[in-house]
Write a structure and sequence with these properties.
The protein is α+β, with helices and mostly antiparallel strands. It is built from 13 helices and 20 strands. α8 packs across α11 and α10 crosses α11.
Length: 508
Amino acid sequence: RGPRCSIAAKIPVEWSPRGQAATHACTRIGLLLALSSLCIERSGAFLSSGFARTTSFSRTRSGSGSSAAARMIISPQEPLPQLGAEGFSLASFNVLLPNSKDGWWIYKYFGPSVSAEHREWPHRQKLMSEIMLSAKADIVAIQEAAAESFEEDFAFMSDAGYSHVLHSKLRFRTATFFKTDRFELLSQFPRDRGLVTALKAKEGGQTVYVCNCHLSAGPFPDKRVRSLHDSLDQVRKEAAKAGGGGGKKGAAAQPPPCRVVVCGDFNDSSEESAVRQLLTKGEVEGGYVEPAYPHVEMSSKAKKQALGTFEDSIAVGYAPNPPPSTFIAPLLDTLFVKEGGEEGKVEMTDAVKEAVGKAFQKVSGGKGYMDREDIDAWLVSINKQLGRGSESRSAARLMEERGEGKLLLQDFEEVYLSELKEGKFWGVDYDLDQALSCGVDKSGEAPFQTRFDYVWHTSETLSVEAVRDPLTQEQRALAAATDPLPNSWHPSDHLIQSCAFRYLPIPE
């Protein structure tokens, strides 16, 4: 994620992150990136376009609960329904790390048409507040909060009457906001890449458990399912404790039917993922292997959850049509990295190698090497100041190995090959194109779109009342054509997911 720490592996995959990746089928070899949030550095307002769309349709709801229930997709200009004692509303949003204090590199995510002002936090914060507050959700779960600046970054939420719980660990944190006039906090539990909160409705007294997740990306389906299972099991423990545990204790304690919402950035879109199986079937069999990752075994033992069957809330709202993409970003990997090469080996495409060569000639002044002055000027041009960025560290290492204060063309190529191996296509693209004016021709390349962000609910105890569209049709068409995310009117590469739920009677 953001700061992309990745393990490059040429294996069949279904997707690769940040839009710098094609939608690879299992017959296609691509560069698969792991995006760990613990590693290396990661015009006009959104709602002012005036576009509106309201669509309604009827469907039969699967699972328990009401049948032939009306579902409404509401436009971005409309707030979620206010259900009072009969239900609640929730939104989930990967905000893309705020760059107020941390996240200095975020400006590299934006396309060349976006002004410097619109890449900075004040503008992004304004857009973010409009997006997060306009839904009028009772609960708002975010991913990629920065601990150092959290209170200042999201002061607009406390001003609007929300309290919050912030994950106590990790650099890229989850946080869950809730309206203090609607809910009170019963308990909170930071888990492995998840934040579990138990909230009690002030009107009606219902307890809602929220699992706010930011699961690992890349070729780690085992980590994703392990993290989710950890959060779900925490809910089991709390619900069992509140309900008496069915006369049992510890791992055997069974919860009564309870109201649970699982949401966040799942960093996976596979219909055959272990995460989806755990939610929809309640179990992942021992030894299960996802088709997209044939060399990764989940676990020798089955993983089970005792909370019941979960439904994909957003899919319920959009049915019978498929839910739209939640992530729209430039497609770069096939332009930057050769496909079909040797297993585990990453090679620049000829176009990128040519662009890197042109950039070297430019920064070296054509003299065949970069001296210390050239190197400093190059680093300032791409990273805004000296002493930061993985390019700077790579250059320092290569100069030390060479034993002299200069870089040759092969060294310069090695710097950018290292960036590609780490999956930072967005950074290489910015450096070559926007900073050094030697970019690769990307004309005619449509952005990468997929669905990484989800909201799931327990189908026995909750039903979907409404789903809010994050974009108008015109905005989505624009982002999918010439203005991928983030851009001047949207502050993140992810889209907010919002829905309203109605309480169902708890089964005896």
